[in-house]
Structure prediction request, 501 residues.
Amino acid sequence: MPTSVKPPLVHAVDIIGTQDEARHLAGELAARLALTPGVQSMDWDETSASWQCTLADGGRGRLTLAAPADPAAAAAHTHRIVATFEQGTPAAAEAYFTAVRHLPFTATEIAAAVSELPLTSHLANRWADKPLSGVGVLLTIHHMRDFVVLVDSLLALGVDPGHMTVIDKEYPYAHTHRVDAHLVQRHGIAVWRYRDLRAGIEDHTARVAAAGKRTVVMDDGGYVMPTVLRELPGQADHFVGLVEQTTSGIRRVEGLDLPLPLFSVAESDMKSMIESYGIADAAVRNTLRLLPDEKLEGQAALVLGFGRIGHEVARVLEMRRMRVAVFDSDITRLVAAHEEGFLTGRSLEQLVRTHQPRLVIGCVGSRSFGAREARLLPERSFLVSTTSRNFEFDLDELRAASTAVTDRGVLGTGYQLAGGPEIVVLGHGMPINFHYAESLSNRYVDLVLAGLAVGAVALACADERLRPGHNVAATNLILAEAGIVDDYYRLYGPAAGGGRG
Prediction:
């Protein structure tokens, strides 16, 4: 007989909106739960002011729309949907809570995000002719509230929601389930998981090609085109062009013979000058949030990689009063780090041995640190990644070299190295700035999101300056012509009180 969960399980979702919006969203959820496999009925109980869920296997759950006990400790107009699973199997509980987590955003929440993303949300005003109506769009972008606004803008620019596909990167963002729910339930957009990337690409190309259209790829990490070119080469001609947001994505397409134009927001002047500090600051802030009881001031830190992000991470850690060392295999970058006053060395092992960092932040994007280096760390050290997925540290090597590997929940994974220290890989090696967080503020990321959409329009309109392969110079020209950087300056420059003038 299947084991029943004990004690009762509880999950709560905070939503912002009017009382009517909260009631409507809770009612939609109850109706959707009623259709969930294994649910026998959902009945409103007037006495407890909650929906009672009866499962086919005899289990039960409850759904209640509540309010915070201390309104002053929550955002204004916060409502709390509380789901309790009181009896039933673990499998039934998982299905129940999966449905509960997938709540679309309220109109109030969307309006707030739109107001925080003025550049992205007003893109359709620039192109009244809906230039994206003739293409499909395949997106692999981070699942945060800002992404919903970008999608709304792409739809306003003419993309048919039936010709849009989103790949959920399966990072543990703060609102990942709600973003997915909004895309599916409010727009009918196909959402595929990263683990099913190839199937998602095949499904997308079949739908879009059947409508006589081709596709623009908007990627964040170089996931789509390498898969197409290596595993689905016969479908390469379906794609009009690629917009790439990250340097790690650029690295993954390097060496590939790209048969289409790459609009490189990742390498643009716009992104390099504005976004890098924000990413670094978010990474350090989220690291400190996960380690509230640690005292890191005065402690040793090591930054791996002195590119755009690594440079800023080193500076932020220095401002946090840590003693910062930098390692980069590129001698020019190593010289730059040395001349900025950071401790450096040509040998990573020797630098770890002498500096003894308790905090190691990887900004390389590929296996920058493994068991050999980790053995040299002091006790209770932490490894932190700022790059896509879990590619920064050699986690398989760390596991093989450990006598015990412990899941520390939201904190990450602990590795007791044989004959060495115990270390913790924060966030299980995934990018720390997205770990149960929104990373950059919406106003900060607005310019880059708008730049991604500008790239999609340029590719859809077959701008003759965009040729197969990298187009860094053309990307910079097109972004400058779009006027979004000018608008950003008007919003946050000296005329808006953002500087001394």
